[in-house]
Amino acid sequence: YEKEHSSWLNRDGVYSDYIQAIVKVFIKYIKGVPQEKVLDAAKAVTEHRQNHVYRYTRELTKKLKSKGYYLLAISHSPKFILDGFGQALGFDKIYGIRYELDGKGRFTGKLMDEELILDKARVLTRAVEKEGLTLKNSYGIGDTESDIKFLKMVDNPICFNPNSNLYKEAKRCKWKVVVERKDVIYEI
Fold this sequence. Notes:
Layout: H1 2-9, H2 15-30, H3 35-49, H4 55-66, E1 72-78, H5 79-89, E2 93-101, E3 107-112, H6 114-117, H7 120-131, E4 139-142, H8 148-151, E5 156-160, H9 164-173, E6 176-181, E7 184-187
Parallel strand pairs: 1-2, 4-5, 5-6
Antiparallel strand pairs: 2-3, 6-7
């Protein structure tokens, strides 16, 4: 993914190409790795980086939690990483990419429930039904166009540090756009 990373850093490429290249490499090299080793690494990353989150989203999470909101995370990141971060931030339920294990507890490189998790609106609908939730006065935060469908479902959509495709949709729909850069948080 070096080419895509360099292209993105040089502002010649797009972030989604870089992330997709990382995912491709991750899936390739996770094959055959024991789950225990990956979970140990995920725990170490979480412990080391759990406070490396944006101030805006951290403070919004605290505020909503203090008001009794049910906090639901839906991400295309690996669930074994999300769990540590989500628990530290007080999330009630966390949905992320799950990877298949073989009979010996080693990763196969295949995604589980891919058709569900890749559709965040479908995950949200399922979670609302399963957990007995309502979307009245709900908030949703997204950063890429894969979030558009679920952001259309919530009462208070927030596009946080959005990519250009989500930004265009946010402007069209008059959604709140928040950017955090260095030590400044501002709305566009």
